């Protein structure tokens, strides 16, 4: 993705450049936390609004579907209108939607507000990283900043259940949305003071037909996964959804092939390394969200644990991700993506297999090692997957590749929630351990797939320093 000239950025002091990173990382913390913080609160939300588990899946997926659908377009809009302007607009939308979530009187209102919150989040993640890349003229400083960025995102995703459990235990489920408001206000004030405006030297055109079709594909596909167990996989409604999803997908491919500047550059999928990396990003986030949701339901619904206790049970996962994310970045930079991907696949597979035989009653001797293994696998996975996706690409295409990979992560989160919810829907507390076994096998299978990604990464060309520094 093209950026403004280096001379426009070189006049920023070192202190101000790192202040910009801190402000943008704060927004990334919000996006990551809200992807997982609500998971631990689902039982409390269901109790407060009087709804069941099946309907609650939309509370999480309305957010992730909106983010997944709009990430690429938000980046293109920021290049055209100004990154700081779109970033601040995203903060305002996210903050207003958080307020609406906090006071939502019904499930429908909460789901709608979560979707709007996702729209705001889509303006924060890619745009904030583009701002960071723009203010860091030195490639080495820029690479260090991107490493810190990745660590913040990994920490926020893994720490969401712990933070959510603490807030819900102390203040109720609405507090997981109220807490966003002061953070958004602080980010708005600080961005006005420290973040410079920037635009791309040549902004990409907005692809509205592609955006509409991509949103339709994602929404219908996730809806089928969520509602399929309820309406029946072979029911007329399900078959209608299959046909809509297939037609929308075919139309999306046809439209994107004809566009001079498509929303999604389909030619990138001709590269095996890129395609497997995108699928690997989906797999990693399927594994993470399945793990978090099954844990929440098993401990809270199945055994009456408080949200704080259930969130604290995932501390080993957060610890593993936090420690291993920066280590993975260093390994990928020194040795390439293959080694950290092999480590990620090994630990994720072992973690999933450890929980296949989940006992009816929680046993810390089984849970703690399993969550630690899954956290380590998650921590090792993200940096090499992105590195594999952009390997050998020129800067302009590396930005698009990074955006597609980010979209794949959000899609993986949505799929994971839908699959986990479908496994335990209508299952009583006594049967949750048995019902969750296919989910833990899925986590292990996602780990095994990372070995395929590692094999593809071995044949991928090395990533140039220029491409790494321009990744958005």
From TrEMBL:
The species this protein belongs to is Micromonospora terminaliae
Q: Name one GO cellular component term.
A: plasma membrane
The record's subcellular location field reads: Cell membrane
Q: How does it sit in the membrane?
A: Multi-pass membrane protein
Name of the molecule in the record = MFS transporter
Instruction: Tell me where the transmembrane regions lie.
Output: 18-38, 58-78, 90-113, 119-136, 148-171, 177-196, 208-226, 238-255, 276-299, 305-328, 340-358, 370-390, 411-433, 439-457
Q: Where is the Major facilitator superfamily (MFS) profile domain?
A: 20-462
Give the superkingdom in one word: Bacteria
Q: Which UniProt keywords apply?
A: Cell membrane, Membrane, Transmembrane, Transmembrane helix, Transport
Primary site of residence = membrane
Give the family, as the similarity comment puts it: Belongs to the major facilitator superfamily. EmrB family.
Pfam families tied to this protein:
MFS_1 (PF07690)
Q: Which GO terms describe its molecular function?
A: transmembrane transporter activity
């Amino acid at each position: 993705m093209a950026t403004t000239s280096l001379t426009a950025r070189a006049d920023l002091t070192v202190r101000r450049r790192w202040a910009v990173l801190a402000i943008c990382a704060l927004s990334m913390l919000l996006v990551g936390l809200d992807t997982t913080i609500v998971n631990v609160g689902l039982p409390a939300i269901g109790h407060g609004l009087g709804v069941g588990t099946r309907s609650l899946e939309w509370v999480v997926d309305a957010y992730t579907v909106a983010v997944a659908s709009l990430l690429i377009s938000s980046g293109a809009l920021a290049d055209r209108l100004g990154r700081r302007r779109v970033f601040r607009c995203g903060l305002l939308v996210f903050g207003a939607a958080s307020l609406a979530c906090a006071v939502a009187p019904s499930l429908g209102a909460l789901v709608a507000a979560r979707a709007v919150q996702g729209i705001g989040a889509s303006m924060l993640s890619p745009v904030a990283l583009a701002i960071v890349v723009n203010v860091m003229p030195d490639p080495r400083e820029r690479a260090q900043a991107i490493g810190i960025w990745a660590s913040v995102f990994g920490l926020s995703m893994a720490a969401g259940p712990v933070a959510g459990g603490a807030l819900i235990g102390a203040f109720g489920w609405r507090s997981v949305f109220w807490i966003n408001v002061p953070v958004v206000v602080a980010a708005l004030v600080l961005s006005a003071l420290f973040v410079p405006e920037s635009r791309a030297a040549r902004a990409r055109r907005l692809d509205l037909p592609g955006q509409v079709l991509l949103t339709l594909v994602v929404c219908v596909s996730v809806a089928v996964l969520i509602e399929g167990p309820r309406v029946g996989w072979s029911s007329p409604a399900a078959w209608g959804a299959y046909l809509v999803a297939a037609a929308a997908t075919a139309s999306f491919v046809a439209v994107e092939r004809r566009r001079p500047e498509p929303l999604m550059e389909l030619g990138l999928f001709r590269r095996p390394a890129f395609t497997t990396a995108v699928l690997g990003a989906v797999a990693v986030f399927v594994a993470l969200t399945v793990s978090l949701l099954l844990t929440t339901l098993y401990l809270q619904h199945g055994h009456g644990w408080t949200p704080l206790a259930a969130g604290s049970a995932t501390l080993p996962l957060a610890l593993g991700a936090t420690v291993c994310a920066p280590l993975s970045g260093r390994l990928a930079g020194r040795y390439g993506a293959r080694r950290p991907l092999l480590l990620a696949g090994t630990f994720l597979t072992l973690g999933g297999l450890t929980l296949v035989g989940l006992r009816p009653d929680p046993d810390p001797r089984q849970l703690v090692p399993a969550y630690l293994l899954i956290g380590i696998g998650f921590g090792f996975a993200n940096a090499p997957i992105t590195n594999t996706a952009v390997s050998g690409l020129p800067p302009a295409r590396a930005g698009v590749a990074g955006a597609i990979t980010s979209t794949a992560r959000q899609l993986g989160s949505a799929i994971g929630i839908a699959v986990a919810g479908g496994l335990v829907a209508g299952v009583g507390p006594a049967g949750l351990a048995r019902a969750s076994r296919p989910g833990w096998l899925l986590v292990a299978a996602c780990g095994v797939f990372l070995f395929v990604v590692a094999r593809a990464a071995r044949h991928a060309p090395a990533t140039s320093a220029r491409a790494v520094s321009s990744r958005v």
